[in-house]
Amino acid sequence: MAKCKGSKKRKRITIAIFSVALFFVACILYLRLTVAPVLKTVSEEQIRALAVTAVNEAVSEVLEQSPSYADMVVIGYDNENNINSIRINSSEVNSIVHKSTIESQERISELGTRGINVPVGSLSGIMFFSGKGPDLNLRVVPVGSVTAKLYSEFKEAGINQTNHRIYLKINAKISAILPGANNVINTETDVMILDSVIVGKIPDTYLHSTSTQDMMDLIP
What is the distance between the terminal CA atoms of the chain, rounded to a whole angstrom? Predict the structure, then answer.
């Protein structure tokens, strides 16, 4: 009789252990299949938004202390008032690029000290609970250095007028420290640093250029 009771007790313990193990396996599967993808998506959205804000603020601060379009782009005309050269003041423009890159790097690095907060309710994947509940703070870490590249845009702005804009494309890699994994997000932000309307006929070679380097190469 005692032997039978001992056997039943061992059986109950085995069932209890199996149930606990099954529960943990189910939790892990739920986290990997449901929570992890949602957490990855939510963190990417937040990081991209924060990176765009950080870069825009950084470049805006640099541009407040920068010279005007006329000081950075010199337009040359011939006797018939046709444009025969577009010269970029490389020292001034490169200064803007350098300062903007450094300032953007510093501001993105600041994200690492604050991290990002994701409401627990958003991890359920259910719209009703999205944005609700206590926050789960995730660490974010910049990966490598911020890089920047210039490119130009010419658009017709009226009769014999062309809108010339120069943009700064800033790229940064940011890693979100997720439970059990790291998610590296590539962020890309375009910021307009120069904008002006040029009066006069612009040669097709300039209209088809896509970067300030192309423009420099086209200078006679």
Answer: 106
Residue 215 has a pLDDT of 45
As a whole number of angstroms, the distance between CA 134 and CA 61 comes to 35
Which stretch of DSSP H or E encloses residue 165?
A: strand 161-178
Cα separation, 29 vs 148, in Å, equals 41
Q: How far apart are CA 62 and CA 141, in angstroms?
A: 24
The arithmetic mean of pLDDT across residues 10-30, rounded, is 66
Residues, the chain: 220
Q: Over 70: is that where the pLDDT of 211 sits?
A: no
Question: For residue 95, how many other CB atoms are within 10 A of its CB?
Answer: 16
Where in the chain are the domains? 2-218
pLDDT, tens digit, 9 for 90 and up, residues 180-191: 667 788 889 998
Beta-carbon count within 10 A of 103 CB: 19
Q: How far is CA 148 from CA 96, 101, 130, 188, in A?
A: 10, 6, 35, 10
DSSP 35: I
